[in-house]
Write a structure and sequence with these properties.
The structure is a single chain. Helices cover 70% and strands 4% of the residues. It is built from 27 helices and 4 strands. Strand 2 (37-43) and strand 3 (47-53) form a beta hairpin. Helix 20 packs antiparallel against helix 21.
């Protein structure tokens, strides 16, 4: 179990749960080791069943039925189990061998029992385990062909009443509900296996409808309910493959289900049924899908079904027609169509759709930037560099962001015309400053653009004239300190003042960095005595901040 390490346990649990887990090492009992899993009982406020398995992002995952664990957390009980296993690592192979031996012994014992002895044993277990009794009752009804009994039992299994609090199944109870609902899948598969595939289709469709009805009333954060829905869909497909129902009727029901539950827990893909539907059924499926789409061309479910059917048939024009019926004003849909056409090798049509997306957009500032990037890329591929510059210029004029400025600069440099493009671009940003229309959070775009051009002197002048935020002033001071130490000193002192009154290690780190810069400015100005007096006063006023004093000592301040 290479994924089981103390570091991984601490990373998954967090330091608090990890430390608390250390206190439960003596509470771990009934340890069992399998292939890639370990289970145990941990005694806390109550007795909790705990399991570690080799899966998950760190090669380790765990489940515990304590309240904290049921919320999806890696709890202290899991930490205790993991640490116990690490302490017994050398004995794990022996324990795993012993567990396999016990399973083999149990299997051999059961195999040796007579039919009457097995029945007696099973009756004893049924009397003690109500859930087992219900599962077997459902199996018996399925085998007997008691369709009414099976349907009644499945309705009971999918009813959330036993688990719901105020009409909603919380996360802590969702797993138990999903486990119960899984029994419905077994019953449907049993119907199919006992020669009642037609009945299994009916029951599966009813079960999917019932599950879809309660979906919004269950916290399915871990996706277990989705797994039940997928299993029901698979059981339905399996029953259809055995029963071979009327293909046209099945096609109708599949389309209705796909449109009613397009994003639901029991999502069925009609294309999975192609071998069941045959040519006649697939024709009916396409006809139904087209009719539904024509009635509601902007419906997501209708569009998705039509697109997948068209794509499966290699019908690019139909895929485009679906998208073209509901064009987004920001040009995103035009881009989707352009990419479809390019994939089909229809490059001229693709370019036309992309350019149309820009022409039809009411506001270039709101256009999907991916569309602009796509067009610029296509122009560049055929050496239309001036067209790239023109589009980047228009986009920059609309957006007036640092990113758009950078993109214009890159395009103009490729076309060897940045010297001509830069002055009007900066003039546009200066106009923004004068009109008081910031186009970027976090300071003046003009200052950022000049800094990005590495024109520090012009950036300082722009900041002095139009203002800048603390981030920009710090960059300016760092870049200009060697040639403008007095100006940089004023910036550093201004930035340090509010930090001096604050606390916290992150604040202290920022403050010490500023103090080092202030010291460098005084060195350049030849005013080290002033800095010494400044530091002495600072230490005297804040000597109780031990972490700050320690950091200043480390840097010789």
């Amino acid at each position: 179990m290479d994924g089981l390490t103390e570091a991984n346990l601490k990373a998954l649990a967090g330091s608090r749960s990890f430390e608390r887990g250390l206190g439960y090492l003596d509470a771990v009992t009934r340890l069992e080791v399998g292939d890639g899993w370990v289970t145990a009982t941990v005694h806390g406020t109550q007795r909790y069943e705990v399991e570690l398995s080799l899966e998950g992002p760190r090669g380790l995952a765990g489940d515990c039925d304590c309240p904290y664990g049921l919320e999806g957390n890696f709890c202290k009980h899991l930490v205790a189990l993991g640490l116990t296993v690490l302490a017994q690592r050398d004995s794990l192979p022996r324990q795993r061998k012993a567990a396999r031996s016990r399973v083999q012994d149990l299997d051999a014992w059961l195999t040796a029992l007579t039919k009457d002895e097995l029945v007696t044993l099973l009756r004893e277990q049924i009397g003690q385990d109500r859930q087992l009794r219900r599962r077997l009752e459902l199996r018996a009804a399925s085998a007997k062909g008691d369709l009414a009994g099976v349907r009644t039992r499945i309705r009971e299994l999918l009813d959330i009443g036993t688990f719901a609090r105020h009409g909603y199944v919380e996360y802590a109870d969702a797993r138990a509900y999903a486990d119960q609902a899984t029994q419905a899948v077994s019953a449907i598969e049993a119907l199919t296996g006992s020669g009642q595939a037609d009945a299994a289709i009916t029951v599966a469709e009813e079960a999917m409808r019932l599950l879809a009805e309660v979906e919004e009333s269950v916290d399915d954060s871990d996706g277990r309910l989705g797994q039940v829905g997928a299993a029901l869909a698979e059981a339905h497909l399996g029953a259809c493959r055995v029963a071979r129902p009327d293909p046209e009727n099945l096609a109708h029901r599949l389309v209705e289900h796909a449109l009613a539950d397009s994003e639901g827990v029991t999502d069925i893909d009609p294309l999975d049924y192609e071998d069941v539907l045959g040519e006649r059924g697939m024709a009916a499926l396409r006809k139904r899908a087209i009719e539904a789409w024509r009635r509601r061309r902007t419906g997501w479910a209708e569009k998705d079904l039509m697109e997948r059917l068209a794509r499966a048939g290699g019908d690019v024009d139909s895929v485009i027609a679906v998208h073209a019926a509901d064009l987004a004003p920001n040009g995103h849909t035009h881009l989707v169509i352009a990419r479809e056409l390019e994939a089909a090798g229809r490059h001229d049509e693709a370019l036309d759709w992309a350019e149309r997306g820009l022409r039809e957009a009411p506001d270039l500032a709101e256009v999907d930037t991916a569309l602009v990037d796509h067009l610029c890329g296509r122009y560049a591929q055929v050496a239309r560099l001036q067209d790239v510059v023109d589009l980047r210029r228009e986009h920059f004029a609309a957006r007036r962001s640092l990113l758009a400025y950078r993109q214009l600069r890159a395009a103009a440099r490729d076309a060897d015309c940045w010297q001509e493009e830069r002055p009007p671009a900066l003039a546009l940003l200066r106009t923004e400053v004068v009109e008081g229309k910031p186009h970027q959070r976090g300071g003046s775009v003009l200052v950022d653009a000049l800094l990005d051009d590495e024109d520090t002197e012009a950036a300082w002048e722009a900041a002095a004239d139009s203002g800048a935020d603390d981030r920009q002033w710090l960059i300016l001071a760092d870049r200009a300190r060697a040639v403008r130490p007095a100006d940089a000193l004023g910036v550093y002192q201004h930035l340090a003042e509010p930090l001096i009154e604050q606390t916290g290690n992150h604040v202290y780190e920022q403050l010490v960095n500023l103090l080092l810069s202030i010291r460098d400015c005084h060195r350049l100005l030849g005013t080290q005595d002033e800095f010494t007096a400044y530091i002495t006063a600072l230490r005297g006023a804040h000597k109780r901040k031990r972490n700050l004093m320690r950091r200043m000592d480390e840097h010789g301040l």
